[in-house]
Amino acid sequence: MTVRRTRLRGVVLGTLCAPALLSGHALAQGTVPPPAEDGIIDLTPLLGDGFDAAPAAPEVAVPPVAAPVLPDGNAALPAYRRGDPVGDAAIAAVPSGIAAPLLLYPATSDAGPGLQRLSGEYAAGALTVTVPPGAVPENLSITYRNSINILPEDSRLTATLDGVLLGDWPLTAPGDFQTVTLPGTALRTGPNRIQLQVRQSHRIFCGPEASFAIWTDIAPARSGIAIAADAPMPDANGFRLAAAAQLAAGRGLPLVSASAVPPELAAEIAGRLTGTGADRSAALVQRSAYAPAPTPAPGAAPGDLARITVLAAADVLPGLPLPAYVRAPDGAIVLVLSDDTPPEALDSALPPPQPVAAPPLVTPGPAVRLSDLSDADLSLRARYARAAVTFRLPDDWLLLSSQKARMTLLYRYAEGLPETALMLVKVNETTVRLLPLHGMGDTDLPPLDVSFPARLLQPGMNSVSYEAIIPGDPADMPCPRIDGDFVQIMGETTLTIPPSPRMQFPRLARGVQALTPAGVMTGDPVADDAGRDTRAIAAQQALAAGLPPLDVAATGPATLTVTSHDRLDPAVLTTLGLDRIALDRALAPRRTAQDDTGDVAPPAATTAQRLRGTATRAWDWLRTLAWPGDPALTDWLADRTGIALLVIPDPARPQDMLLVTGPAADPATLATAFADGRVSPAGPTGQAALLSDGGTWQNWRPAAVPPQMREPLGPRNARVVAGNYASWSPVLFTGILATLMAASVLLALYLIVKTRGARMR
To answer: So what family is this one in (predicted)?
Structure first.
């Protein structure tokens, strides 16, 4: 053992434990060596002559840690033995007489990170509050704000736990956030699901427009329980709960190390963050052990609830069992690892993420009930309300021609609705039926058959939605209270989808659904830190943390290579048929002087230019008629901008995808868009997809790529297959038929002439 290694251990242990170990009284008695001015503990006087001295390493300045002020009385170092779990817990024991600081364990929301908005006259949401073992919360806080348009006298927010009322209060926070404190005696150890129900009324108007103007925002990161920092036990369960609470607050989980963390270990930890129950946008924040602690953002809770410290394997003390759990002086539970920790050693603290449940799979042919696709009847209670059911079709289902799907709709609506009240029935956001909601209220209506083109459906994810639009009567007064639903969609509603031959286009959705954290990688060949593609690395870590396995039958492993737009290999651009200028214009648009000064009238076109433009438009019209798909990728991107482009470079290998990120690509936005797109009909599909800064996908399907057969052609499927190819390219299909017809006519004429000549002879 050398002095250099001992000094490094002193830095790490001193950073974690110095305030708890080195009390002011102990320093005064001389029982431990005082820290140097630069914060490094000099252990040379304690080593004696039994160790060989080595040249001292350059000292790294660490901010000094102030010793806590203790009350009068004797103080002593806590008993501690290396490798003893009880001793590890004793490291952070708070001296007698000093109350441990309170830390906020924030709530989590099913809606994801950020604010949870409850809009409309009636809305419901939920918060999950997890109580660590050993903690006894006295209060539960809920922080909210509401629209200034809300009428407080007729607007209330109710919180319940397992049917037990926790609180009910009027909405009186039209400006800044307000915090309501509720009793926490009903909370149990472990997760507690708090149901929130809001009833809101516009102070002036009534109708769909007024429904959009009334809302209540719940701030999960500022809601939750405040417990003593030393209440949760420093063990695997306590660390997991603390990490989940910190990630839910959007603060990220720090990964602290004195040297570079192996990329494999960092990727493994990042991929396990969602296993703590945290949201898919959870982030792993790497920082140096020598860097000062970051300053909390305004309004954020100070300090960490949990963090991870990685030690070099050569610096781990002999006999110290790792992983280990210690409590830092700020109350955070620290998971201590070595840089050679195997993945299975993380299972207790960071369990692997469980597969995400996919929407139910519908088998084409037989009718399926709506109750088989959703938990209960669908209810619409607001002046503008929407309810949707998402389901899956097989990946090799494809109908492009005139086949019809059918919905047998069972519904009812309230009595006394205005004559202009309507309900829209939509399939993948396309309206297929508009129904009046007047004249037969509060009665069981007969089944209504709603047929629609089956081509509105697509392989993979689909949705059927219902939207109610209830005008105010009158519209310039607050809405009267209606206890009950405006519209109910019965679970006996059925959906019948015709079968199809096994055909498919190259689709991004198949690869995105099969993608796992292990399949996300960067295409950065640079080994040194100075030249690494930092944007791609940040995106790769966010995607790995936000992509738990999806519970679908994958056709094979999928890979996603992440690279920045300015690092993309020119050979890949050539393969995609894309030029650098078009890519930069789409992902990194630059402002020009014309953008700042306004539009400038273009010069008058010459006769030759007008003729050329007319010919180009005519050719585009003919091409669109022959191939109804999208134009070349360069032309398709010409009038679009986004933050990232997802493509399949080789259509023969649709499982291998490439993500090109622009300078404005936010890693959290990428992770959320990928996670949502896997289970949404609006997710990435086709052969390329452009992600906008709002998190929506625009899909590109090349017109020149025909559908591929996945089964033999025979008499049973020939008609449907011909219809699919005819719909894919009507002019091309018609040309083929015309050619066959002409060949048949010529052959018939030849046979007629040949046989007539033989008879004449």
So the answer is: Belongs to the AcsB/BcsB family.
